[in-house]
Input
Amino acid sequence: MQKRFCACGRAVYVRYGWTGAVWTPEFIFSARDNGARLAHCPACGRSLEIDSLR
Ligand SMILES: [Zn+2]
Output
C-alpha cells in the first residue's frame, strides 16, 4: 500500500490488483478501505492516474 497525493493535496492510497494478466494500480480512499475504488479524486474530481500523483 502506497500513500500518494493528488495535485490538490488530497491523500489517496494505492494498492495493486492482479487482473489475471497484469498488476494494475487501484486507488482507494483510506488505508482501511478494502472496498470502493476511486476513479476520481474525492476532493477535486481530477481523474486519478498513477503518473499524475505525487
Ligand atoms: Zn484532487
Q: What stands out?
A: The chain has one domain: 2-52.
